[in-house]
Amino acid sequence: MVALSGLASALESYRGRDRLIRTLGYCCQLVGGVLVEQCPARSEVGTRLLALSSQLSHCRTVLRLFDDVAMFVYTKQYGLGAEEEAIFVRCVSVMGNLADQLYYPCEHVAWAADAKILHVESAPWWTLSTALWGLSLLLGIARSLWMVLKLRQRLRSPLAAFTSRLPQGKRRAVEAQIRSEALTLLSNLADLANAVHWLPPGILWAGRFPPWLVGLLGTISSLLSMYQAVGAGGQAYTAP
């Protein structure tokens, strides 16, 4: 009953619902891809699961039509990252916010072109939106890697060893931040692999992943995101 109440509470929020749809969509793609490729007798079920995954992805695309304002407010509040201590973190965060902000209108144009609302070719806009998402992920990976290295250095420094006899509250907070950044790093790496796959053929491994691998990477990223959201009180950002 407690789990059901928690699920209902998560579904009442936009972010919670989006995370669940994302996870369910990638899980369907994972299972559907395995059934189609490895179990010919169950290929029809697999095809239906892949169709469901596609519809859930389309649902999220439509819902993201309303994300521009929220992203703009977040970008404006962050500004130039005056609260960040490191210049590197400021730079990659500001560039990441800019990439995210540009991602949404590009995706909207691509969606509107597919829906025959705009008389333009959708493929270039899908490519541009995917490239912006990939850039955002790369910047996020660079930020998380830098943070993990710096935080580990702080824990291993002579000063940290000298103060280890003091109350462990601050040390535990640093260790928790390292775990959080490591999970973000793994989640972004999984998403980046899929982002490259969705770029035009000829770019690295673009177009080479089977559906089940795309589903597996997306499922890993989604589960990590959900785990972090639970730990952070449901405020974590949800990737496309």
What do you see in this structure?
This protein is mostly helical and 240 residues long. It has helices spanning 2-11, 14-38, 43-63, 68-78, 87-114, 123-156, 158-162, 169-197, 211-231. The longest helix is centred in the middle third of the chain and has 34 residues, at 123-156.
Gross morphology = globular
Radius of gyration: 20 Å
The largest β sheet comes out as: none
- Class from secondary-structure proportions: mainly alpha
**What is the first-to-last residue Cα distance?**
31 Å
Flag low-confidence runs: none
Short description:
This protein has 240 residues and is mostly helical. It is 77% helix and 0% strand.
How are the SSEs ordered, and which strands pair?
Layout (H helix, E strand, L loop, with lengths): L1 H10 L2 H25 L4 H21 L4 H11 L8 H28 L8 H34 L1 H5 L6 H29 L13 H21 L9
Helix pairs in contact: 2-3, 2-9, 4-5, 5-6, 6-8, 8-9
Defining key terms:
9 helices; 240 residues; mainly alpha
